[in-house]
Amino acid sequence: MPHLLLTWLMSTEPFLVTARGARGLSADQLRGPGFVRPSRGVRIPTPTPDPERAMRSAAILAAPPAAVLADVAAARVWGLPLPPRIGLHIDDHPVTVAVPPDVARPQRRGVRGRRLRLPPEHVTEVAGQRVTTPARTWIDCAELVALEPLVAMGDFALHEALATPMDLRTMVGWARRRRGVVNARYALTLVDARAESPGESLVRVHLMLGSVPQPECNIDIVVRSEWLARADLAWPAQRVIVEYDGLVHLDEQRRRSDAQRRNLLQEAGWLVIVFTAADLKRPWTMAPMVLNALRARS
After folding, report:
1. Using an 8 Å Cβ cutoff, are 83 and 145 in contact?
2. Most-buried pick from 201, 226, 242, 288 (CB within 10 A)?
3. Are 138 and 150 in contact (CB under 8 A)?
4. Roughly what angle, to the nearest 10 degrees, separates helices 165-174 and 147-159?
5. Residue 164 to residues 159, 167, 192: CA-CA distances in angstroms?
6. Pairing between strand 271-276 and 240-245?
7. DSSP character for 127?
8. 43, 40, 103, 116 alpha-carbon torsion, rounded to 10°
9. C-beta separation of 66 from 27 below 8 A
10. How is the chain split into domains, by residue range?
11. Could you tell me what percentage of the chain is helix, strand and coil, using 3-state DSSP and rounding each to the nearest 5?
12. 227 φ, ψ to 5°?
């Protein structure tokens, strides 16, 4: 294998190809199996340890100098939880690249170009990629996702210290009259930094939209100086707990531990209600169940 080609294959960074090729590599070599072609004139050496990052880098590389990763692409950079309809992987959604209003928006395969007003304080850099800040990413996603997942994204940003409540409030104030700001303004009243998983956030929002009083998130249950559990959602006055069991709870050892812990809670006078992903597909059934439990134990 030629030395130049070997050098490129050992690199994982995308690069541009001109009419003359790329740094000595022939057209045949550039069309070979050693490279992925995400769009015209761009190559990514393969295999690469982080395909998602490589695709984002490729999108920025082929864009104007002022380009920034935004909305869904930026959410992936920050690790914000996205709803399934958008997709869990970058292949399920184009890379969003934003440019200033006076610049032609990028139009390439696998790229969604946007013209956005981006004040300097709304842009930062992560691992060499220019990207909107977590708070700006959250407000841009407000026009793309429903209320419940938007709250889950806000919960995550607060819990992981990517943003503060003031950051989100400031961004909502800045975004007045923009699409999605009404959604974001409502979500701002529901976000909670104590939430520890997207599923838990979704359950909490569905319950509160169903007139269930706001719960306390992830509190420690201590009975007679003995720690029993950390409750996802709790109403201590009524001794009612709601827990969300995600995929991690399918492990047999974890299931046994959960069962033992819930038995101890029930013995101590707590009512434990468990919801799963199946309940999130029928969210209208959850609030009545919890309301009935709270009324019965008031």
Report:
1. yes
2. 201
3. yes
4. 130
5. 9, 5, 11
6. parallel
7. T
8. -70
9. no
10. 3-49, 58-188, 198-296
11. 40, 20, 35
12. -75, 125
Contact 208, 214 (CB under 8 A): yes
Instruction: Record the tokens describing residue 179, joined without a space.
Output: 């699409």
- Half-sphere exposure of residue 205: CA atoms within 13 angstroms, side-chain side: 25
Tell me which amino acid residue 139 is: I
Architecture per CATH, 198-296:
3-Layer(aba) Sandwich (3.40)
Could you report the per-residue pLDDT of 38-93, keeping only the tens digit for each? 667 666 677 776 777 777 877 777 778 889 999 999 999 999 999 987 765 555 67
Joined tokens for residue 287: 């609030």
Helix (H) or strand (E) holding 286: helix 286-296
**231: three-class secondary structure by DSSP:** strand
Residue 259 phi, psi (nearest 5) = -60, -45
How far apart (Å, rounded) are the C-alpha atoms in residues 122 and 5?
Answer: 39
Cα gap 38→181, rounded to integer Å: 33
- What's the whole-number mean pLDDT along residues 255-275? 86
Pick from 288, 197, 285, 190: nearest CA to 243: 197
Residues 145-160: pLDDT tens digits? 999 999 999 999 999 9
Q: What distance in Å separates the CA atoms of residue 60 and residue 72, rounded to the nearest whole number?
A: 14
Angle in degrees, CA 49, 54, 60, rounded to 5: 165
